[in-house]
Write a structure and sequence with these properties.
340 residues, alpha+beta, Elongation Factor Tu (Ef-tu), domain 3, 2 domains, 8-stranded mixed beta sheet, 30% strand
């Protein structure tokens, strides 16, 4: 039996670990260590992670899914002045200029420089302190991956400030529920932690195959993500608000949940006394559409409001994060309950 930890300890570890698309190994290691030997797990060739406990007397299987990767960069070409031109692996905002980035495997740090004329003409560079292309190549090889440099998670009385809450917060919330899930419950829950979401080409086919081979066919798939929150006072309506609870999403850009399922989620939150808010996410989406439609089952997106998404420093609320954990657990308990 694992010793209980504070709910924020694991979130801190996840947000601080290096893990851009294709480099999710550190995240996988932390999740498996946190869950311990009681869980079965499969890591696919493209680094999707599936975890579950053996459960022989269940009625339904609920998959909770979140993505592990963070935004990243890769070397594109080495310039005569020692700068490295970069190719982003994910949607790095043009305003994320002059921030520290870290390259692996050599643990080299550099300054991210963004030169932008407009949305279609944006170039990304790294200044790693080199004065020639040969020196830059020696410091950062062609196969290197970069990401925003480590930012330690800091907590105020009400909020959390850190890096990569998108979507390490979703991963951490799912793990918290998995750790404390009892086999005596009616439903079986499966954690699916996906790779390469930020690049838009995440490997879904092998994930289908893995779930099928291990007889983990879902009855419901819940995607746990972050969504953009208001970033300045008086932000336009339509954004979620930090500190007002978990977001029950009426639809996102890739998927529209069944109205009956939307009503179920509202009732779960109401019955459980879980603080929540509602919105439609019109720009952006997670993997829910491809997963739910691929398996032909119902799906639903939960999101945690996050300020400054995709930027080196971001902010979420303790209240919202804890509401997410509570909502995941209550969905797992209540799904299929005719008395709700």
């Amino acid at each position: 039996m694992q010793k209980d930890k504070q709910p924020l300890d694991f979130l801190k570890a996840l947000t601080e670990v290096f893990g851009p698309s294709t480099m999710e190994d550190g995240v996988i290691e932390l999740i498996l260590k946190e869950l311990g030997p009681d869980f079965r797990s499969v890591v696919t060739g493209h680094k999707n992670l599936v975890v579950w406990k053996e459960h022989s007397n269940y009625e339904r299987t609920i998959v909770f899914q979140a993505h592990m990767d963070e935004l990243g960069v890769r070397p594109y070409r080495y310039l005569s002045n020692g700068y490295i031109e970069l190719t982003p692996t994910g949607g790095i905002p043009r305003i994320s200029n002059n921030h520290l980035i870290q390259f692996q495997p050599n643990n080299v740090h550099g300054v991210l420089i963004i030169r932008s004329v407009d949305e279609k003409n944006t170039r990304y560079y790294a200044d790693v302190g080199a004065t020639s292309p040969e020196e830059a190549l020696d410091m950062v090889p062609r196969h290197a991956n970069g990401a925003y440099a480590k930012v330690s998670l800091e907590a105020s009385a009400t909020q959390l400030k850190g890096k990569s809450f998108d979507d390490r917060a979703g991963c951490a919330a799912i793990v918290q529920v998995l750790r404390h899930w009892e086999k005596e419950q009616t439903n079986r829950i499966v954690g699916v932690f996906t790779a390469r979401e930020e690049t838009g080409n995440w490997p879904v086919t092998e994930l289908y195959r893995t779930i099928q081979e291990n007889q983990l066919f879902p009855d419901l798939i819940v995607n746990v993500e972050c969504c953009p929150a208001e970033e300045v006072p008086g932000a336009a309506e339509g954004f979620a608000s930090v500190g007002k609870g978990i977001v029950l999403v009426n639809m996102d850009a890739s998927y529209e949940p069944d109205p009956i399922l939307c009503r179920f989620m509202s009732l779960v939150a109401e019955k459980g006394g879980i603080i929540n808010q509602h919105m439609a996410v019109r720009a952006g989406s997670g993997e829910l559409g491809r997963l739910a439609l691929g398996f032909g089952v119902a799906g639903y997106p939960l999101t945690i409001p996050c300020r400054y998404m995709h930027q080196p420093h971001s902010v979420i609320s303790k209240v919202d994060y804890m509401a997410c954990i509570a909502m995941i657990r209550e969905i797992a308990v209540q799904y299929g309950n005719s008395d709700l």
